[in-house]
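Notebook p. 47: complex prediction with NAP.
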Amino acid sequence: MSRALVTGANRGIGLELCRQLVDKGWDVIGTSRGPAPALEELGVRVEMLDVADEESIDALARRLSNGTRLDLLINNAGCAEKSTLEDLNTPGMRKQFEVNALGPIRLTWALLPVLGQGSKVAMITSRMGSIGDNSSGGHYGYRMSKAALNAGSVSLAQDIREQGIAVGILHPGFVKTGMTGGRGDVTPDVSASRLLERIDELSLETTGTFRHANGEDLPW
Ligand SMILES: NC(=O)c1ccc[n+]([C@@H]2O[C@H](COP(=O)([O-])OP(=O)(O)OC[C@H]3O[C@@H](n4cnc5c(N)ncnc54)[C@H](OP(=O)(O)O)[C@@H]3O)[C@@H](O)[C@H]2O)c1
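Predicted complex, structure tokens below:
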């Protein structure tokens, strides 16, 4: 049975990714920062993880180091905080870098021993991190942190290609979740099913590409 780990799995897109992976017969580990009743209802293994906390990442890596192999790691956890020019010097600005940019790269690095030939890593980024697609400005912390994630993910894709691990950089669409206050073009279930199609297509030939869940290539 193939095994996947999804971060930020207690709600939103992450929860829906877990639900659909379970339906497809995957063995799923979902991570949460606290109680996760909706995730537990799916019958998946729930692990505590704060992606902004190095000790929490190391502790998870140790718990998985008992022969667990991951075929798929979905770095889905993310946060969006208000960040206009007035907010540049706030903890919220730095938090977005820790959670959105450094967190997924640090976690992937820590979990490399349980990934291997044929494993895939999906980075759930945002087209808000695209420089070429930015025609409306603002959102400094979110845009900059997701652009940094994109840059780091391309380096990671190059660095772990030799190990046979492909990295996909994926925008989920504008999705009706807590992050958007329920606004969006698509529901989490539609987004999750499109993301899983893209992950299915991902290979070492397409490692390091930046795609919309609908299959469009996105500009950097
Ligand atoms: N919704 C959209 O339109 C949209 C568009 C583009 C990209 N995205 C990206 O898609 C991903 C999922 O977003 P969503 O819409 O499902 O958002 P969401 O409903 O707000 O869920 C975010 C998830 O990330 C978790 N999280 C936040 N900070 C964390 C941390 N430090 N450590 C571990 N987990 C943490 C949250 O856990 P808690 O419950 O503990 O806070 C929650 O499970 C994010 O990376 C987001 O940037 C979303």
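Notes: Residues 7-8, 10-14, 33-34, 49-52, 76-79, 99, 124, 126, 171-172, 174-175, 177-180, 184 surround NAP (CB under 6 Å). The helical segments are 12-23, 37-41, 54-63, 91-111, 140-160, 188-201.
Next step: compare against the earlier run before touching the bench.
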